[in-house]
Structures
1.
Amino acid sequence: IHNICVDGESFSAALELGMSHYPNQFGLLFKKNRQEQTALQLAIDKHEIDDAMKVITKHIPPQDDLPILHQIIQHAPDLFEDFIGMYPDARFLRDAKGRLLLHAALESGMTK
């Protein structure tokens, strides 16, 4: 998925395929490459954040019961405000460890 983040259509196709095979790993959106960059970081670096968010919400719809905000706190806390606006109901979900969003935030050291 990292090498495919060069244009919006390729990123969309890769995320769609990733979600069909790895829905619990968010289509490998948070998987790191050898340079320790996630596919999410690369997509936002190569595209406008709004364009990347459109692709992400298309393939990871806000109504899905996936705790995406837990992953954002862990892998991209600087994007938390952008994601909470798109996934407001995800605040109430528990992750695979049974943690609420507050617990994941506290565990990660997030203070704001």
2.
Amino acid sequence: MRGAAFGVSGSGGGGGGGLGPRPQDDAARRIETEREIRDRGLSGLDALSWLLQCEFGSVDATFTWMNFHNSGHISRVTFDTAMAILRVDVRQVTGLSKQAVFSAMDLTGARLVSREAFLAAFEAGPAPPPRRCGELAAAP
């Protein structure tokens, strides 16, 4: 993976919901996160799960951020927009198209993904360590 897969500068939203501005991302941390994904041999939804948990701390917090309208579900447009804001090249990270990733979460075919379906798709993957991913490289 290269820096473009996850991006080295942020303009999205982190924390408590909404697609608003995020603090400037630490490029070294993000590059280290990509290295961790590669070194662990993660691919598919497991790789994206790891990346999102590194960014937001949990799969649940990721869904809360994406569900900015508090409807209890996310649409394909919302998912695509979130990946663009986070500067995630889904195909490079997962080996899958955005459509394939979204379809894997959209178990009912309703073109909407509920919190439960989102959690089921991503919580099955490996959980990152309790520290903020990529910070070991920056630690003294």
3.
Amino acid sequence: KTLLDHGEDVLCCFIMQTIENQAPTEDGGTCIRFFKRKTHPSDLLHGKFSFAVFGLGDSNLLLDRQTTTAKDCNQCAEELNDRLGLLGGNCYHELGMADERADLQEVEPWIKSFWSKMN
């Protein structure tokens, strides 16, 4: 089965890393490019799997490191989360974002919230 063959009872959690120049990793890029295809109908994900997206970034890679936050270095996760919603996907959990420079402090609270929602 492909991902699109699953129904609403399936939950997919996407972990997206943004690397230099707002680019995804090689595997992450494949995923984003698939969902960004302009040939997809706007209801492609309607009635399909639920999703959650968590982004991992590193604001050390940005030019202006003094005023940056996790939001500034997780463009790939934001892009995927937005696109899945535009395709009619059911967002199971809010977008999570973590910054390597801040020791990924945002990871544990997001994971706890994610699992608590499942119970």
4.
Amino acid sequence: MTTPEVVADAHSTDVMFSKGNWFHEKLEDGLIISYEIVQEYHRAKSAFQEVEVVETKPFGRCLITDRLMQSSLKDEKVYHESLIQPAMFAHPCPKKVFIGGGGGGAPPRRG
């Protein structure tokens, strides 16, 4: 039995992943998503977690902790709007609010 010859075309993953720097995130068994990294800004590992801040082509600047994307520049507004707006609309006159967490600074901008 002969092994068929594999020819890599321009859309082959072999060719695609050999060019540039890629971050691969396993979402579940059998499903991995990949992001092309344009620039790496920060990488650190503590006793508690591994943190990376990178610039990706599709989402802009991203925060990644323990190899899982947490938020990105392009989707943070949608994420934070869905957290903040329901509480703001539920209150009859929200003038002062308590923000538990919110260390990234986005929730106060959305309120």
